[in-house]
Write a structure and sequence with these properties.
The structure holds two protein chains of two kinds.
Chain A: E1 5-7, E2 10-13, E3 19-24, E4 31-38, E5 42-50, E6 53-57, E7 64-68, E8 74-78, E9 87-94, E10 102-103, E11 107-111
Parallel strand pairs in A: 2-11
Antiparallel strand pairs in A: 1-3, 3-8, 4-5, 4-9, 5-6, 7-8, 9-10, 9-11
Chain B: E1 4-7, E2 10-14, E3 19-25, E4 32-38, E5 45-51, E6 56-59, E7 62-67, E8 72-77, E9 86-92, E10 102-103, E11 107-112
Classes of the chains: A mainly beta, B mainly beta.
Chain lengths: 112, 113
């Protein structure tokens, strides 16, 4: 079974731009969660989608948004990028909410 | 919402010694507690997990203990090896219809040969 995939793997943007990241979960998994990882800050929860509905949202500004498609693939969007948005963005999928999560390789976003 | 605290932030041990990482959680409804290992440049991977109906779980050199009353759980690694060097994250979740899984800040474990 193929693992969680994320595209692109690396991204360089400038302040004020917007970016869209993509996550394809493991086949059959319906829950997709997104996390921001920065040095010293651990894994900060962004949001979680299940059956195309956002079920939970972390403490991030409205510039961070996401969606999930009928095939469970998910995208997250960050608008009006700031330098502080530079981070590794990880998505994780699970068969059901609250179960073991499988992480993708992440997208490393650099904002200049 | 759930808040997970993890200690220590860094841990250095000699090869062969034991390592213990501790986490506390705030939401008494949490019932699922996974531990993830993240090696440098790689994705986090689940190494062991425990549910609230169990007090201890072992898998070879790794064990996790849970104290629901005190709302804390710990990861124990025995006979540490250099390949155990990584960042370890604990997490807590109430499961169910909300994926409210929250992670600790991580512990960087270094095993010296």
């Amino acid at each position: 079974k193929a693992g969680v995939t994320q595209t692109p793997r690396y991204l360089i943007k400038t302040r004020g731009q917007q970016v869209t990241l993509s996550c394809s979960p493991i086949s059959g998994h319906r829950s997709v969660s997104w996390y921001q990882q920065t040095p010293g800050q651990g894994l900060q929860f962004l949001f979680e989608y299940f059956s195309e509905t956002q079920r939970n949202k972390g403490n991030f500004p409205g510039r961070f948004s996401g969606r999930q498609f009928s095939n469970s693939r998910s995208e997250m969007n960050v608008s009006t990028l700031e330098l502080g948005d530079s981070a590794l963005y990880l998505c994780a999928s699970s068969f059901f909410q609250g179960n073991e999560q499988f992480f993708g390789p992440g997208t490393r976003l650099t904002v200049l | 919402g759930e808040n997970v605290e993890q200690h220590p932030s860094t841990l250095s041990v000699q090869e062969g010694d034991s390592a213990v990482i501790k986490c506390t959680y705030s939401d008494s409804a949490s019932n699922y507690f996974p531990w993830y290992k993240q090696e440098l440049g790689k994705r986090p991977q689940l190494i062991i997990d425990i549910r609230s109906n169990v007090g201890e779980k072992k898998d070879q050199r790794i064990a996790v203990t849970l104290n629901k009353t005190a709302k804390h759980f710990s990861l124990h690694i025995t006979e540490t090896q250099p390949e155990d060097s990584a960042v370890y994250f604990c997490a807590a979740s109430t499961g169910g219809n909300n994926n409210d899984m929250r992670f600790g800040a991580g512990t960087r474990l270094t095993v010296k040969p």
